[in-house]
Amino acid sequence: MQNLTLTETGGKIHSYSSQYHHESRCSNLSLRDPSLVWFSSVREQLPQHVIFKLRNLTKLSRVGIYLHGENNQNPKHMQILISKDDKNYEKIVDTEVEHRAGDFLFDLEEEKVIQYVKYVITKNRGGSGIYVSKCYAFGEVLEETKEKEK
């Protein structure tokens, strides 16, 4: 199963709250390289967020994030919300995040048909800004939207 937030799988950044500078821009989240990160602006208060638009309507089955290392900008608490239309969002994850590097993956109890995924960091480990390496969205692209692409 592919991560549908990546540029190569058709994912794109729809919007985001802030970014620190061009080397740690939010668009780094759309690239496969795990050493590139999104670091939010140190001048902006939490919560910070990023919204991905997936190429097609998708039956979403798993979401998550990847953290490259341990620092005080790592998320301490996060939420993940989903939407079919970018207007009505449903919260599917609301959790404390362990202070460690690695994947934090969440399986949905039942698949949801969506096109937008919003990742919200509400608390960090005490630093200024937040630091995230990757955002994940895994699922099955719906056949009827595949046909519209042709």
TrEMBL record:
Residues 33-128 form the F5/8 type C domain. Signal peptide: none annotated. Coiled coil: none annotated. This is F5/8 type C domain-containing protein.
